[in-house]
Amino acid sequence: MNNKVVIIGCGNVGMSYAYALVNQRTYVNELVLIDLNKTKLEGEVMDLNHCLAYSPSKISIKIGDYSDCKDAKIVVIAAGANQNPGETRMDLINKNSKIFKSIVESTMKSGFDGIFLIATNPLDVMTYLTFKYSKLPSNKVLGTGTTLDTARLRYIISEYVDISPKDIQAYVIGEHGDSEFVPWSNASIALKSIDEYLTNTEKEKIEEDVRNSAYEIINRKGATYYGIGMCLVRITNAILGDENIILSVSAYDEENKIYVSTPAIVNNTGVKSKIFIPLNLEEKNKLENSINVIKDAINNL
Ligand code: NAD
């Protein structure tokens, strides 16, 4: 079966995703890279192809253009500006919304009928714009959302409790941005409430550290990319493998007509469905606040 993926925007994030793909067993067997910087792209494709002798997967990797999107299963967009130190994700809205219209329209002109997976920030707004410009059904457009924040949360909790992050049932939900939050009332480890492992002070500190993770990394190395590369691979494999995996991707919220993250089932249809999570009053207010932040950003465009 031909499982073609096109990456539009092959900077830190796009290439970390590509490198993570060739490093793992993946359903992807054709990878096409598109970027404005053709010279750098030539070097990237040469370098990636030199991995193939030792890669666990067989993948054809090449430079392409928008006509390659026609028969792609997934188009991943990681094009656009990233945060400078001190900048929020929302500060990128004007720069990145401008380039998205032409990227999405060029993709659709090819006859593309697959799934869009968005990584560019501000994530929930860019995912919404992709839905709007592509006119695809909402389930076929999704963003990485809070999958990265959830990975960061599970890692930090694992450091406190000395249990693998893979066995921690906790999510970050809401905007992939400063209004995101942890619905602790639903968090657990091995069916035991998280309250049996962590104090309230510890939970507050963990949540703050998760929210500040990107800022801390950007202050030290200028950008974040390995973590998001791994999230993109996880989502890609969930789609191509029809896995019905639960991930906190940014998915369409019918009620509010925006994209926002809550746990959702991901398979070869894209987002199969969102999962209803019971929230306490404080958490409901936080989610509503996050939804309003995204709505306001879209309305002010
Ligand atoms: P980068 O500057 O390294 O790469 C961006 C790339 O996009 C460049 O190679 C540039 O040439 C290309 N580009 C720009 N306009 C283009 C266009 N019209 N068509 C094709 N290519 C184009 O930036 P990065 O560090 O890779 O970050 C990319 C985006 O990912 C940023 O918006 C960043 O904030 C976001 N990001 C998201 C997450 C997440 O959790 N979703 C995590 C980290 C970064």
Label this structure with key terms:
301 residues; alpha/beta; Rossmann fold; L-2-Hydroxyisocaproate Dehydrogenase, Chain A, domain 2; 6-stranded parallel sheet; 3-stranded antiparallel sheet; binds nicotinamide-adenine-dinucleotide
Protein model, in words:
- The chain has eight helices and 14 strands.
- The chain is of the alpha/beta class.
- The protein has two domains: 4-143, NAD(P)-binding Rossmann-like Domain (Rossmann fold, 3-Layer(aba) Sandwich), CATH 3.40.50; 147-299, L-2-Hydroxyisocaproate Dehydrogenase, Chain A, domain 2, CATH 3.90.110.
- The chain has a six-stranded parallel sheet, with helices on both faces. A three-stranded antiparallel sheet has the order 7-8-9, covered by helices on one side. The chain has a three-stranded antiparallel sheet with strand order 10-13-14.
- α1 (12-23) packs across α7, α3 packs parallel to α4 (123-134) and α5 crosses α6.
- The mean pLDDT is 96.
- The chain binds nicotinamide-adenine-dinucleotide (NAD).
- Nicotinamide-adenine-dinucleotide binds next to α1 and α3.
